[in-house]
């Protein structure tokens, strides 16, 4: 009887220790994910800035007056500079590390907003947008790579959506603040947002994979132990990271042309395809010109209020994806995303078609808002976060920095193209034809997902790489999903 009681107590202690290890493991990963994702909040605020700021610049009393062409360049300079930032980000994350690269964007972000706030001419605003855009390009590359290398497969989908969640909160904050602040005060608010991100970055480690690539094994193991919890056994995982590094250590680092070799072309083209259909859905044109679109629609609801509603929906929709991505998988959400966006864009195009042809659509003044809401929901649950998440998953380790740089630059090139030409598309094809075109592209994206995109749910990065490149191909190991919030307890250090 005494022995039985002793065994029972011992079993309880073991279970308690395992649960404590899991809580620290999850809490550490959430701290790391949340910290780097604070940078995404700055990215979201910077991306949405032009929507409330441009109308404010032409209001009475503003020291600036912006023409339609200048406004077009202010809106599109950020994605153009982000293209350059995306190309520069690849060499940076390989040379100075993932964490340091993300951290290095903080001060320039602050400078960009201060420059805009102090602007006495349009050129200063453009310079600030260009600096912010460069940082956005670097950050949008660094974030998914950092998360892909630090978060375990069991929760990689859930935690991998944190950048999107906080990015959408930045958009929402900009929309709400933009209703009450002029463009200068809004820029000052933007300069304050990177401060918590800068402070918190000093609490987290560099990725173990980068340390290993620099022959810093002790620091790599220490970083991995911190990420998994001090009681976790990291021996096997650390061995796999070392093995993956040693396999390609003596090989020549691939250049940009090598990315299109037979071995690497498939994962790269899948990643670029996802980026293409993400941006050609017209999402950034919608975000940048939300106020203008609602004004032209003649909506019966105040355009600024409509913008805030869209921002709230955008923010809340990310939680739907967060809860479903590790249960349903990436492809199911992409199916739902592309279908929803296509239907809503075609509906929106039809509304404008009737309006432009002289029909009385005043009783349907609510339709643009409803269409926008469901369009944003569709984007936020799939094509918004998943292309970035999958970029960190499907690109092979050997080319991850170079390929991610190319994919990110391609994404921002598409963003610039859509944003800069959006006003021209409206003039040439009309509002109805433009939205119908975007809806047709979303249907093409659905076909691409069905036939070309693999499912990565619950698979390790090494297994995904073997499956896509064919190197050392074997059976793919499925990883049991673990809730990202199970056994979670607060850390002693608060964010």
Automatic annotation (TrEMBL):
Residues 32-457 form the Major facilitator superfamily (MFS) profile domain. The keyword Membrane applies. CDD domains: MFS_GLUT6_8_Class3_like. Gene3D superfamilies: MFS general substrate transporter like domains (1.20.1250.20). The chain crosses the membrane at residues 30-51, 71-93, 100-120, 126-147, 159-178, 184-204, 268-288, 308-325, 332-354, 366-391, 403-423, 435-453. GO terms for molecular function: sugar transmembrane transporter activity. It is found in: Cell membrane. The keyword Manganese does not apply. Keywords: Cell membrane, Glycoprotein, Membrane, Transmembrane, Transmembrane helix, Transport. GO terms for cellular component: plasma membrane. Pfam families: Sugar_tr (PF00083). It is a multi-pass membrane protein. Belongs to the major facilitator superfamily. Sugar transporter (TC 2.A.1.1) family. Trehalose transporter subfamily. This is Major facilitator superfamily (MFS) profile domain-containing protein. It comes from Aphis glycines (Soybean aphid).
């Amino acid at each position: 009887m005494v022995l039985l009681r002793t065994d029972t107590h011992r079993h309880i202690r073991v279970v308690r220790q395992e649960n404590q290890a899991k809580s620290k493991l999850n809490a550490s990963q959430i701290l790391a994910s949340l910290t780097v994702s604070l940078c995404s909040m700055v990215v979201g605020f910077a991306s949405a800035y032009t929507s409330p700021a441009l109308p404010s610049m032409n209001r009475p009393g503003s020291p600036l007056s912006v023409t339609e062409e200048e406004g077009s360049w202010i809106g599109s300079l950020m994605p153009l500079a982000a293209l350059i930032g995306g190309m520069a980000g690849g060499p940076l994350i390989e040379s100075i590390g993932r964490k340091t690269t993300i951290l290095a964007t903080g001060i320039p972000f602050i400078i960009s907003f201060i420059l805009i706030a102090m602007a006495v001419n349009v050129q200063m605003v453009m310079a600030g947008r260009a600096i912010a855009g460069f940082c956005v390009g670097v950050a949008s590359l660094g974030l998914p790579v950092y998360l892909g290398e630090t978060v375990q497969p069991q929760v990689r989908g859930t935690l991998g959506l944190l950048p999107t969640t906080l990015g959408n909160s930045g958009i929402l904050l900009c929309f709400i603040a933009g209703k009450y602040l002029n463009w200068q005060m809004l820029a000052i608010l933007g300069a304050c947002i990177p401060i918590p991100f800068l402070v918190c970055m000093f609490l987290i480690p560099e990725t173990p994979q980068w340390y290993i690539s620099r022959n810093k094994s002790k620091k790599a193991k220490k970083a991995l132990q911190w990420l998994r919890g001090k009681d976790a056994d990291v021996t096997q995982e650390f061995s796999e990271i070392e093995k993956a590094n040693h396999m390609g250590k003596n090989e020549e680092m691939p250049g940009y042309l090598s990315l299109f070799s037979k071995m690497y072309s498939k994962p790269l083209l899948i990643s670029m395809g996802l980026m293409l259909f993400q941006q050609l859905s017209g999402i950034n044109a919608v975000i940048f010109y939300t106020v203008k679109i609602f004004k032209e629609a003649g909506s019966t609801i105040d355009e600024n209020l409509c913008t805030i509603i869209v921002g709230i929906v955008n923010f809340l929709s990310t939680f739907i994806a967060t809860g479903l991505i590790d249960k349903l998988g990436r492809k199911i959400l992409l199916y739902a995303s592309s279908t929803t966006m296509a239907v809503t864009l075609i509906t929106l195009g039809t509304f404008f078609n009737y309006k432009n042809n002289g029909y009385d659509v005043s009783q349907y003044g609510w339709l643009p808002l409803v269409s926008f809401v469901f369009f944003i929901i569709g984007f936020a649950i799939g094509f918004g976060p998943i292309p970035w998440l999958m970029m960190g998953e499907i690109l092979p380790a050997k080319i991850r920095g170079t390929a991610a740089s190319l994919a990110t630059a391609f994404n921002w090139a598409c963003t610039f193209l859509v944003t800069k030409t959006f006003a021209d598309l409206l003039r040439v094809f009309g509002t109805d034809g433009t939205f119908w075109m975007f809806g047709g592209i979303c249907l093409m994206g659905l076909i691409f997902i069905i036939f070309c995109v693999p499912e990565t749910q619950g698979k390790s990065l090494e297994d995904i790489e073997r499956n896509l490149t064919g190197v050392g191909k074997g059976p793919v190991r499925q990883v049991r999903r673990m809730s990202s919030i199970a056994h979670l307890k607060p850390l002693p250090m608060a964010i």
